[in-house]
């Protein structure tokens, strides 16, 4: 599809494939040895990385869209966005072909940061294993997250893309989180009830949730609501009774539907995510990411909002 019609997901090579050993060679022996190792092993298929099953699920959605709308270009386009050198490209291409992935567009920047290219590629979502690059992308206004591998192997749905989002500082701005951190929970509950009818400002991943919603509506239009290959989840530490109404009213004011909303009132997110088995779970707080990881969820950290300041100071 043409970039202006597509939902472009840019994925780094370390998010798509497991390059832990290669990364170790790069850090310990330098770039020349790393390139040499990759060239010597270009016929050895790379193992899946944290974004691999998410990308596979995007491709399944594309296949279903093409059946229903053969001439429509509004679908996912995955771009491999990496600061690898072009000499490493053959191994990446061989691995992509081995798994039957459709990744036609590569951006290999030879050691330079790829962030400048994200805008040129009209990127809707950027996933990387490099937290500094993700931070750079977030600051450039691009929906981005740092990918973390799950600590257990889980079987993911191959017929439905499942995406789970935290609320504050992910879909919504961090305005409410600021009150929790600076003034405490009681003041937060009071603030949310007073502002129940005032929509929250948007957060960095609101646009990607919108993109998913747009594609869902294409399935609904063909009477495929019950068989839709996309399902979205809000998994929030908020309590439904005291601070849930504002969240639901905000989504409604944006014209967005979310399939399932889980208000955990401060309970851990990991056990709920085990039941959902999302291909990706976005959260702004590292302790939620770590809790999800431990129980086998592929989690993606969104470095946005006030929680980052508190995370860095601990």
Q: Quick one: how many beta strands? A: 10
Question: Helical residue percent?
Answer: 40-55%
Shape: globular
Largest sheet: 10 strands, mixed
- Based on secondary structure, the structural category is alpha/beta
Number of structural domains:
2
CATH topology descriptor of the largest domain? Rossmann fold
Which band does the percent of strand residues land in? Answer: 15-25%
Q: Report the order of strands and helices.
A: EHHHHEHEHEHEEHHHEHEHEHEH
CATH class of the largest domain: Alpha Beta
> What is the C-alpha radius of gyration, as a whole number of Å?
20 Å
Any idea what the CATH architecture of the largest domain is? 3-Layer(aba) Sandwich
Report the mean per-residue pLDDT as an integer: 93
| Number of helical elements | 14
Description of the structure:
- The chain has 314 residues and is an alpha/beta fold.
- The protein has 14 helices and ten strands.
- It has a ten-stranded mixed β-sheet, with helices on both faces.
- Helix 2 (20-29) packs antiparallel against helix 3 and helix 9 (185-194) packs across helix 11 (240-253).
- Pfam families: 5-nucleotidase.
